[in-house]
Amino acid sequence: MSATAAVAAGTDFAELCADARGLFWNQYNPGDGASRIWHWQGGAARCLTPEGFSVRSRVYEYGGGAFCLSDQGLVFVNEADQQLYRQALDGSAPAPLTLGTRRYGDLHWATGQVLALEEDGNQHRLVSFSLQDGTRQVLAQGADFYAAPTLSPDGLRLAWIEWSRPHQPWTATRLMLAERQQGQPWAAPRCVAGDAAEESLQQPRFDAASRLHCLSDRAGFWQPWVECVSGLRPLPAAAADHGPAPWQLGASTWQPLADGGYLASWCEAGFGRLGIRNGAGEWRDFTGAYSRFRSLALDEERLYAVAASPLAPAAVIAIDRQSGSVHILAGGSAPLPAERISQPQPLRYPSGNGEAHGFFYPPSDGATKPPLLVFVHGGPTSACYPVFDPRIQFWTQRGFAVADLNYRGSSGYGRAYRQALHLSWGEVDVEDACAVVSHLAGEGLIDGERAFIRGASAGGYTTLCALALTEVFRGGASLYGVSDPQALTRTTHKFESDYLDWLIGDPEQDAQRYAARTPLLHAGNISVPVIFFQGELDAVVVPQQTRDMLAALQANGIRTQAHYYPDERHGFRKAHNQAHALEQEWLFYCEVLL
Questions:
Q1: Residue among 60, 81, 69, 80 at smallest CA distance from 26
Q2: What are the angstrom distances between the C-alpha of 46 and each of 39, 70, 86?
Q3: Nearest to 266 by CA among 275, 256, 278, 277
Q4: Which of 33, 25, 23, 28 is nearest to 12 (CA)?
């Protein structure tokens, strides 16, 4: 499989919405980097987004919740100007709903109003827009960050998530509720949960009776809770995370049902599951052959999800609620026959004073003791999943084994595991990346002397730390990776401006700790080749981070390469750039192994 084919297989889907008019989703096309709305009804799907538009929000830089359904059609965020547009379903041209420089995301439709998160420089607020006359109303302001506005079916209760600096949405948030009488303005909001202790809440939902539900991790995992007289009480649920770390807005991994039950996906040992618990407490499993589920939606007849498996990439699927039969509506076609696909083997191995998780992919040729490539995901509070990833298959097709890590600090294994990175970034993640090499070498699965490491964003930081502070790897690749954490605190965007304080410490009070974990300051210790990839429009990890690290290595005579992409931001979206980066990384490692 070529780099071009691997990238072409990266079509992705998000933000499923279902109603009587059919199913709608946002579809990312790696060919041109655009995202477009598709509508499925009666067995056929058609694209609704005309040329010249791409549906993507950049609120908090990571976006999400870029469209919603209204009674008149669609309302969406146009990527180019970040403004709201409305569009009928008859194929007519979109018309602007907003004008200006504010950015929008996390859209929700409720009783003639579009609820949205509004970003105005470093100010954030919840607003609504009337589709009749475009009137804008501020619903909530004053907190540092907002997410997930939702209105009850009776229109009398408005809930949302908010949080304050220096917290992140996966460390401590508040569930807020405002109420009103019919025809009256909103009363002052009250905090339902999250005010007394550190607790991460996400995805608030109202059921048909206008009762408030939410995912909370106060019991150790993100699980469903429902309001009661004293605040929230837990619903029966698996001891597992029912949602990912909310890096993006608009997530939907669970929905309460009218009978008192709920639809949910959750994560067990890294593998996703899908099921319905009815009001009587009975469970029905709909997992089937899939290992990850997201963007859940449902109607009276079907469940809908973006799902993937070890043998198939992301697909939009419909599951009949009676028979359990699965129909693929879009995507899901692997560019390789099943017998040539390297499938994930769960990893659970000792590291430091704990243990770490991940997935091992053997090379497709069955070679013994192959070279190893360690994948380090970004975030760092994110996760990798045991699904078909064309990038991983690109490497296994070329004789590499791959270890895709969920190092300590990753989500999907509960709050305690996720919190393991507190003040320990650059230590426990590096420890886990090195330990997996010795573990796999000890099992006779790889050649420990031919191990490489690669990572993007926060994964790039772990990569550079591992190369600077250990002697485990033969080389590595940093894709828009952090080389100077202190510089990052001065230049990055508001959403992550305090994250480093949680991950490492106060830049002034803990200056020695920063110095010990700054790859740029330890560049002289790197003795192996490194290749860099960087988007010139990146506002999260600015290009100067890569340039400084590159210059330091070149000054020491280390073999390096760097590739800059003038039309890319944080995370590459253009197919030709993605393919170029993948191909160049492979060629670089081939030269190192000669």
A1: 69
A2: 5, 18, 18
A3: 275
A4: 28
Q: Describe the strand order of the beta sheet including 326-331 as a list of residue ranges.
A: 292-298, 302-309, 312-320, 326-331
Tokens representing residue 423 in the block: 């003040």
pLDDT in tens, 23-45: 999 999 988 889 999 999 988 99
Give the whole-angstrom CA distance, residue 210 versus residue 114: 19
Taking the complete model, does pTM exceed 0.85, yes or no?
A: yes
Segment holding 157, helix H or strand E: strand 157-163
| 83, 104 contact by CB (below 8 A) | yes
Q: Is the peptide bond before 566 cis (omega within 30 degrees of 0)?
A: no
Residue 64: alpha-carbon gap to chain centroid: 10
Q: What share of the chain is helix, strand, coil (3-state, %, to 5)?
A: 20, 40, 45
* Cα gap 104→242, rounded to integer Å: 26
On whether the CB atoms of residues 391 and 331 are closer than 8 A, the answer is no
Closest CA to 323 of 297, 291, 294, 284: 284
pLDDT reported for residue 31: 85
pLDDT at 328: 97
| Number of residues assigned to the chain | 594
Tell me the average pLDDT of the chain. 94
Residue 161: helix, strand or coil by DSSP?
strand
CA angle (150, 286, 299) in 5-degree steps: 40
Helix (H, G, I), strand (E, B) or coil at 480: coil
Residue 134 has a pLDDT of 87
In angstroms, the first-to-last Cα distance of the chain is 22
pLDDT of residue 195: 83
Query: Running along the chain, 594 residues long, what does each successive block of 10 average in pLDDT?
Result: 82 95 95 94 93 96 95 96 96 92 96 94 95 92 97 95 95 96 92 90 96 97 94 95 96 95 95 94 94 96 97 97 96 92 97 96 92 95 95 96 97 96 96 98 97 96 97 97 86 84 93 94 96 93 92 96 94 90 97 94
Q: pLDDT value at position 183?
A: 84
C-alpha to C-alpha distances, 90 to 74, 457, 509, nearest whole angstrom:
11, 41, 60
Tokens of 422: 């507190």
Least Cα distance to 292 among 356, 202, 383 occurs for 383
Q: Domain 338-593 sits in which CATH superfamily?
A: Alpha/Beta hydrolase fold, catalytic domain (3.40.50.1820)
Element (H, E) at 469: helix 458-469
